[in-house]
């Protein structure tokens, strides 16, 4: 059984995250150190430098030949169940949309496994728990976060194409005398077109760009984003290094570590900055906050429980699978949401509230699961 000493160890591991968050919040709200433009630059630093190197660092040091593929299979099946349910909701419900489908998937499935999961699971299940959580984190980083990144890039590219195409089609043809007289009217129409284009892509994900042109633009942006291949390079090196007993040169390893160690701290700092820029700390409101918590701590673990039983997981592996599905929201999902302008307020609230309530919830999960054989 987990004791008070183990609970204290979990708290010790979580408190530094809040320290970084408070520093980010205070730097904008209390001390006025950063402007809004500088805050955007900090978010890009996190998204394009510290997080990719952090992801590469932990991915490159696993042993892919010793992964529990039943556990990975259960994790994959649970996410496919979530995708199916969300897709059915988006198709059949009048409130369904592509934008909320993306956010709902993030809330249900993406966890902060390395930062929060390991210190929470280790006192519960020891080395076995840590090993499985790390494996789940690697698959999440390589497959699911990459897929999320691709979908977000697809959405943004489609949005830009819709705005440009709609703008060009609605601009009036004018003579060189009338062009001066209609200047203000064109500016007004351009602003309206931008608003219409935003509404179109946000409501149903449609785009007036040809499909192959859209895919080309998405791919070109995708391949220059370091988050899209950091984990792929990392797992490739893991296969090579474990197959032939190789190690990274100390100089290369040091270059990676100096930035990757800043990944978690700068991500939390960036989230604190985002909170400070909002009128309210919990900017999405109580209804969406409750919605996010239900998806994170009920829908996600329920889908994992069904999947784990279906693939035949038993004992501690089954318990760990359910526990890791209830780990608080992924900080990376918030960083992506902020970068791509999709419900960042909901994701930041999920990260904050999730970390606050996760300790008692996970301890309760642990106690209940002890009765499962």
Automatic annotation (TrEMBL):
Xref: InterPro entries: Auxin_eff_plant, Auxin_Efflux_Carrier, Mem_transp_PIN-like
Primary location recorded for the protein, binned into one broad class: membrane
Domain of life: Eukaryota
Ribosomal protein is among the record's keywords: no
GO cellular component term, pick one: plasma membrane
Transmembrane segments: 6-25, 45-62, 68-90, 102-121, 133-154, 218-240, 256-277, 289-311, 349-369
Keyword terms of this UniProt record: Auxin signaling pathway, Membrane, Transmembrane, Transmembrane helix, Transport
Topology with respect to the bilayer: Multi-pass membrane protein
Subcellular location: Membrane
GO biological process: auxin polar transport; auxin-activated signaling pathway
Molecular-function GO term, any one: auxin efflux transmembrane transporter activity
One Pfam family in the UniProt entry: Mem_trans
Family label: Belongs to the auxin efflux carrier (TC 2.A.69.1) family.
Function, as annotated: May act as a component of the auxin efflux carrier.
Name under which the protein is recorded: Auxin efflux carrier component
């Amino acid at each position: 059984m987990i004791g008070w000493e183990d609970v204290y160890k979990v708290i010790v591991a979580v408190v530094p995250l809040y320290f970084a968050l408070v520093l980010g919040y205070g730097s904008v709200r209390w001390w006025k150190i950063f402007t809004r433009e500088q805050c955007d630059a900090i978010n890009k630093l996190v998204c394009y430098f510290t997080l990719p190197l952090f992801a590469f660092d932990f991915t490159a040091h696993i042993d892919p030949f010793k992964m529990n593929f039943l556990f990975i299979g259960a994790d994959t099946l649970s996410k496919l169940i979530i995708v199916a349910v969300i897709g059915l909701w988006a198709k059949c419900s009048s409130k369904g949309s592509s934008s909320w489908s993306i956010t709902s998937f993030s809330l249900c499935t993406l966890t902060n496994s390395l930062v929060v999961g390991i210190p929470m699971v280790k006192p519960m299940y020891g080395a076995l728990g840590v090993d499985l959580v790390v494996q789940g984190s690697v698959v999440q980083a390589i497959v699911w976060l990459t897929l999320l990144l691709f979908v977000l890039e697809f959405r943004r590219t489609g949005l830009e194409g819709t705005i440009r195409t709609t703008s060009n089609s609605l601009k009036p043809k004018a003579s060189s005398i009338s062009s001066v007289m209609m200047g203000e009217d064109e500016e007004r129409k351009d602003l309206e077109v931008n608003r219409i284009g935003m509404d179109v892509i946000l409501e149903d994900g449609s785009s007036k760009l040809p499909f192959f042109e859209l895919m080309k633009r998405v791919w070109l942006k995708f391949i220059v984003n370091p988050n899209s291949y950091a984990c792929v390079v990392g797992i490739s090196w893991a296969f090579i290094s474990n197959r032939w007993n190789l190690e990274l040169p100390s100089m290369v390893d040091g270059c990676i570590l100096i930035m990757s160690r800043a990944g978690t701290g700068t991500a939390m700092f960036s989230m604190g900055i985002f909170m400070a820029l909002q009128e309210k700390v919990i900017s999405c409101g109580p209804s969406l906050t409750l919605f996010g918590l239900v998806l994170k701590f009920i829908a996600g673990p329920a889908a994992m429980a069904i999947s784990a039983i279906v693939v035949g997981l038993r004992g501690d592996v089954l318990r760990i699978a359910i526990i890791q599905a209830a780990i608080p929201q992924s900080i990376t999902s918030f960083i992506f949401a902020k970068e791509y302008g999709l419900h960042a307020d909901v994701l930041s609230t999920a990260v904050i509230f999730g970390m606050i309530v996760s300790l008692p919830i996970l301890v309760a999960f642990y106690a209940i699961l002890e009765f499962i054989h």
